[in-house]
Amino acid sequence: MRRTATRPTKAEAQAWAVAEEAAILSGARGEYPRRTLAEAVERYRREVTDSKTASTSRADNLRFDAWLRDFPELANKVLHEITADDLANWRDARLKQVSGSSVLREAQQYRPVWTIAVKQWKWAPKSPWQEIRLPAKAHARRRTGGWTEIRRMLRSAGASPRVAPSTPQQQAAWAMLVALHTAMRSGEILRMSRSTVDLKRKVYELPKHKTEALIGARRVPLTSRAVRLLRVLEAQAQREGRDAYFTISDASRDVLYRKLRDRTMIEGLRFHDLRATALTMLSKRVDVMTLARISGHVDINELFNTYYRETAEDIAARL
């Protein structure tokens, strides 16, 4: 809506224009700036996504890129004019391409754009996400890695737990080994270094991690087996005059691991499944509170329902 007014002086007219513009931007007039979804996403990236850990922000940005690229009509629409029908059309289109779990995961990333746009930026009166139905959360994965599979992948990469990795492929295999003995995430493993790992105290100081906002810096206890592995990486880093244990990025690790897994014809084993494998093995040795301290979980239910994957047959064999 166009607004006009006359004032006795130029200074008063400019002050009125500034006040009107501020009122519009704050939503006080019941009007909202004509900012598109693409503009909202870019601002959200700067203010929120870029402050996350490198691996998380990379994954989020890849989803945002795909969303804006694959749905240009939605991306170019004014944010406060986007309706529940628009989002329902996006949901239905995505369900023809990916699983309900993937759609739910994407929606959980996109919804906060509206939350901050409504509450802080005053770019829209409300979020249309409240009016659409999303797919139900799928059952947790039950896949774990078997040592037969792990040894096959190590042989294919030419890697040995007694010999430091000399190629990027071998570094990816070593990251897999460390994951199995520490139950850590990929990004946490690749950030290990001589300055953050204390092999004498068997502790890894981890200032940046997924639940940092809730629990602050983590101090991850290391098993004796993990320490034996890490001594090999520590010695290599010292010889080569670097602090970091690994020289590959998380993105490179992902590609290299997938190639290694597919080359050995191992089906369905994701790198993150190794974290669940390690926690399942550790659950036989420590109590649940200790396990949560190792994994960094603040929600015991998530630890039990998602990462504890011992089979009923294995449990029955111990009874």
TrEMBL record:
Pfam families referenced in this protein's UniProt entry, alphabetically: Phage_integrase
Coiled-coil intervals: none
UniProtKB keywords: DNA integration, DNA recombination, DNA-binding
Matches recorded under InterPro entries: CB, DNA_brk_join_enz, Integrase-like_cat_sf, Integrase_catalytic, Integrase_recombinase_N, Tyrosine_recombinase_XerCD
Core-binding (CB) domain segment(s): 35-118
Domain Tyr recombinase, first and last residues per copy: 140-319
Record's keyword annotation contains ATP-binding: no
Keyword Amino-acid biosynthesis: no
Protein name per its UniProtKB record: Tyrosine-type recombinase/integrase
